[in-house]
Amino acid sequence: MRSRKPLALFAAAAFVLAGCGGGGGDASTEGPVTLTWWHNRTTEPMKSKWQQIADDFHKTHPNTSFTIEPLQNEQFQTKVPLALQGNTPPDLFQQWGGGALADQLKSGKLADITQASSGWIGPLAKNADGWKTGGKQYGAPYLMHAVGFWYRKDIFATAGITSTPTTVDELNAAVTKLKTAGVVPIALGGKDRWPDAFYWAYFAVRQCSVDTLKKAVEKTELTDPCFLKAGENLKSFLDTKPFQDGFVGTPAQQGAGSSAGLVANGKAAMELQGDWNPDVMQALTEDKEIGSKIGWFPFPSVPGGQGDPSVLLGGGDGFSCTTRAAKACAEFLGHLVGDDVQKILAETNSGLPVTPAGVSALKSEPHKQIAEAMTKASYLQFYFDTAFPTKVGQALNDTIANFFAGQGGPDTIVKSVSEAAAGNK
Amino acid sequence: MMSAAITTRPPTAPVPHAPAAGGTRRRSRLRQRLELAFLLTPALVLFIGFVLIPIGVAGYYSLYSWNGFGPLTDFVGLDNYVAAFSGDVFQGAIGHNLIIATLSIVVQLPLSIGLALLLNRKLRGRTFLRMVVFAPYVLSEAVTAVIWLLMLQPGGFIDEILRGVGLGGFVQLWLADQSLVLYTLFVVITWKYIGFGVILLLAGLQGVPPELREAAALDGASAWQTTRHVVLPLLGPTIRIWVFLSVIGSLQLFDLVWIMTLGGPANASTTMATYLVDHGFKRYEFGFGSAVAVILFIICFLFALVYQRFALRRDTQGALTGVR
């Protein structure tokens, strides 16, 4: 293949430089195998938890050993395509599923684990869908995530808000009360763009029926009028100016001035964020009691919307296997979704366990609440930037962020998807 | 390139070997070639493997619509280049790079010269002051960016300082105001890189012979006249090198912008390099990203060639050109 030559040359050079010979072992044969594992937990406690889990697995499966390489989240964007294009991809790597997974399939290196996972995928139910393409399983989640409003119970009480908003009108009323009380109603990390996208996505999820949502992702288009209406609803919401000053320049997670930091330090009352937010907040404040001061409620329903109010926006952390050692890898994935590991993961509060057994081991109140909402939800809408092919998802995020900064309208957002899908830059 | 550029003229041309008997000369020439081959090969291999080939490969990828997975099959010719140049965001990015480059010459250069002249004088605590000016340059770009990102948040350190000294009216949404963000970034860039210019110019000032100043003083030249007509002309080579490095740096500006604003809000601070990463890597459009990379490379390369040819010609004679 002509086109592969330069890369082969690089791969060869990389080999010589790294001085590694590649751990032999054929695709499906039995025998000792060493799995190279790229995960994204570079910080404690999860970093050592993964190490421990791998060590334990090795004890019961002496033929399987691990070479673990923790990588920063952002590194996966650049390293995974390169690795999959080369000849020695990792055997097991962080996989967010959806459109990126479909993109990666084109490399031909991802292992179809439909057969290998049939023994253990059952309890995951709909959680495993995001790692499925064309009816085949190309990976599995180990933790799920869902987005909702995190709020300060103490500030809500001070502002005289007695119950959490269940409709957008109630949310607007709460925003007014909080403004009167002199607090920023909602913190938003607009610099990072993806938090903006949560809002548009939720207005779409509340406006559009589940079937419409599914079809939109399937066809990579937002032609249904409900998506336009969602943008208009978002516009009216933005017009109430619920966010802090200069939110388009605010980072989501860095420092006390970030959106999570503002809530953690009592400067803002709410933030629409993922289930991971309590940990982020704890790192940004001296307040050791923050965990007990915050509560969670799902995104309110939108009057007139056809969307099911139980539907959640979210995603998950999972792993995909590559073909070299797919058998051992799939076996290990099965171990990760087994009760023992799921219980360990539940205790870290770093996501929602993927099986009922894991969910029952959750300790923190808000996480129990989110897991319950997740169980009840008729559908989990994947973050649109993950559900769509990567180039479309990122174009959508950028357009939404521009919309938050005052550029473009509801129609621009809708159009960005079809234009990106058509290959326009 | 930098080290080659900073090294000024080599002392003198090597003294040719005294003529010797034919055989010896041939043998020594062979030896010289072997030495050259031996010493140059490692560097050459690295340069070819990690600079020239990647540039060529990027040029090749740029002709395809390719998301980084699987073989390149979708040949699109120059479409990627057309798409880049016809897009508002990329046009804006080029404009932002040019603004930063112009501002660095107009603002940073006089500032650097002023500080260098000041710090070249005998004054108390000179070493300390030099260190203070140079310190930001030693910080990594990422650290600088995060520090300033935090300080520039509404109600952050900068706002509080302004309010503290009674300048509360000047407080702005530094990173959120679309018409201001680029200039905020420029201030941070200046803070970060001014030390480098000052150190470079201080080194240049060491090369100004004190006798010339003395002679000028004896002739009745004022301090300003001495500076203007004796010192500055002799600083010429240093200034020209600084301008070169500064413009190239401005064209390639990435880290600070990426961490502080991601090119936002609404693309108000996008540079060519942030656009490249945003579209090439974040969107998995490696063909298109390669085209942007090639454009960036050509712009920098053309500037370097033209500047070397016209501005740096005398300064680098012998170092970058053949000895005459």
TrEMBL record, chain B:
It is a multi-pass membrane protein. It comes from the Bacteria. Keywords: Cell membrane, Membrane, Transmembrane, Transmembrane helix, Transport. Pfam families: BPD_transp_1. Residues 1-25 are annotated as: Disordered. Residues 94-307 form the ABC transmembrane type-1 domain. InterPro entries: MetI-like, MetI-like_sf, UgpAE/MalFG_permease. The chain crosses the membrane at residues 36-61, 98-119, 131-151, 180-203, 241-266, 286-307. One of its GO terms (biological process) is transmembrane transport. Its main location: membrane. It is found in: Cell membrane. One of its GO terms (cellular component) is plasma membrane. Belongs to the binding-protein-dependent transport system permease family. This is Raffinose/stachyose/melibiose transport system permease protein. It comes from Lentzea flaviverrucosa.
